[in-house]
Amino acid sequence: MAAMRPIIGIASEGQTKEQRELFVTGAKLWPVYCAQCHNARPGSQFSPAQWDAITMHMRTQSNMPAKDIRAITEFLKQAR
Amino acid sequence: MLAIALTLFAAPRFGIAAGDSGDAPDLMQFRQEIDSLKGSEAAERRRVERDEKHIEELENQLKRLETQNQKLGKTASTLEINETKFSGDTEQRLRELQNQVAAKTSQPDFQSEMKRYLGTNQLTIAGAAAGSFIYDKQTAQNTFSLEFEPVLLYRLNDWILFEGTIEASLPPGSEAHFALPVATAQIFLNDYLEVNAGIFDQPFGDWYEDQSPFWVNRFITAPLLYGAEPIVPPTDIGVQLRGGAQWGALGQDVDYTAWIANGPSYDPAIPKPVVGQTLNPENNIATNTNGRAFGGRFRFYPFPLDSGLGRLEVGASTYDGKWLDSNWLYSWGVSAAYLFKDLQARAEYAESYRQMPTGSAPDNRQGWYVQAGYFLQHLPSTRISDELDDTLRRLELLVRYSGINQRAIVADEITTTPAIGFSGSPSIFSPHAREVALGIDYWIEPSIVWQTEFDLELPGRGGSQFAFNGASTPKFSAIGATANDKALLTQLSIGF
């Protein structure tokens, strides 16, 4: 179960092209990579600054590729 | 006009009167009538004059009103022009302000301002808490239990993170229990290499690092090989090198962890090393050897994300270290995890081989578990009520089978005190413990779950038992099969 409620992610106008690409990739990875161990938590649960710390922690826990955790981080920071 | 009419009317009568000269009363009457008509004519003239004057006044008023109306029209035009101009100016100013606001509060700028305000050093508190009710049939015990595990994350910058996990629990008795199972510095050197130094969850298999938090573990208890009689130490102190990379399409990854640590240690309350002795549960800081332990783990993810085949992980781990000078603990294990839509399944197998001092046979152990869970979130509607549908769709059904083999157990280490994640069943302390766990989880939120677990303890054949009972030399005995047992646990687990 990824998340019991739909998560709305909005690519904001201020995003760079790279951020938008990360956002889209993160939206694909988030429900799968997170759910491999636990339910994927919605971006609204933490502030962007908190996600920065939590996703660093999750990179250690999961050993997922750095570029993938960057994408998931970007998605979680924007999806709120 | 009126005067002429009166004259014409009066003339014939005067003529008739002249023809009848000498008729004085008639003449008098005529004169009176003429006077009367003259008076009426004068009154009529005055009335006409008044009317003309009134008409003139009305005409003047009309002119004044027309003049005023013209003035008002001009004023209205002027006001309309001013309003149009003002409206245009306002709209333009508003647009300018909106542009300024949009320019100043765009998300990247806002985030940048917030980052600048907050600084690079950030403290985040995550973690989990759980409250349980535990019942074991064999010991006829039931109790509430509570544990709180905050995880402190201190982010120094984008490549250094400090982590500390504080474990606080209230076991039966009058004292709280505190531990620090994790205290690490995580240093990300590049995209493929991280240094993780400190006290850490043993990165052996998937359990200790990834599956043990309350709300992450689908069950309340741990599988037997990671529970009360673990195969490898749950925590260690040392240095890890770790990282991951994508080797194919998105989702096709590999990851590695290699570490050096202080190594295993066993229950110090036992006066003499014996087969079946329990590994220290946490904060495994051993200084009783001259050697270090070495570990390695490799995991492989074969399926691309877009393949529709789900997410499969297969891994292998090893952990070898001296627990006593010249005496090693060797261990290895394999693991697999699979996620496909509403199904999640995982399995692990591990073995350990502990060299014993001269005169004792080696301490061999094997352990395994296989578990599966299925979310009912896509269950068809019952057509009874929406509330019932919503409740059912929050459920996850679970089953797990786990077992452990060891040649002997130590009677002095058997504990029946229930605690979070442990039912207190004595049947778990068996040379051939087996357990079937059935679970049902009700997911209130993605990280808040009410879990209920029913355990069937089904230990197999017997084995050996060591008992010190306060003596320095153990008493050895053969024991038969341990009795079966049942336990029921229910727990509210909250990840925060």
Please describe the structure with a list of short key phrases separated by commas or semicolons.
heterodimer; A: 80 residues; mainly alpha; 57% helix; B: 496 residues; alpha+beta; Porin; 16-stranded antiparallel barrel; three-stranded mixed β-sheet; 25% helix; elongated
Would you give an account of this structure?
The complex is a heterodimer of chains A (80) and B (496). Helix content of chain A is 57%, strand content 0%. Chain A is built from three helices and no strands. In chain A, helix 2 (48-62) runs antiparallel to helix 3. Chain B has two domains: 1-119; 120-495, Porin (Beta Barrel), CATH 2.40.160.10. Helices cover 25% and strands 42% of the residues of chain B. Chain B contains five helices and 19 strands. Chain B has helices at 2-19, 24-104, 107-118, 207-211, 386-392; strands at 122-136, 141-157, 160-169, 177-190, 193-201, 235-246, 253-261, 293-301, 311-324, 327-340, 343-354, 363-375, 395-406, 408-410, 432-445, 448-457, 463-467, 475-479, 485-495. In chain B, strand 15 (432-445) and strand 16 form a beta hairpin. In chain B, helix 1 (2-19) packs antiparallel against helix 2. The chains are: A mainly alpha (80), B alpha+beta (496). Chains A and B meet through helix 1, helix 2 and helix 3 of A and helix 3, strand 1, strand 2, strand 4 and helix 4 of B.
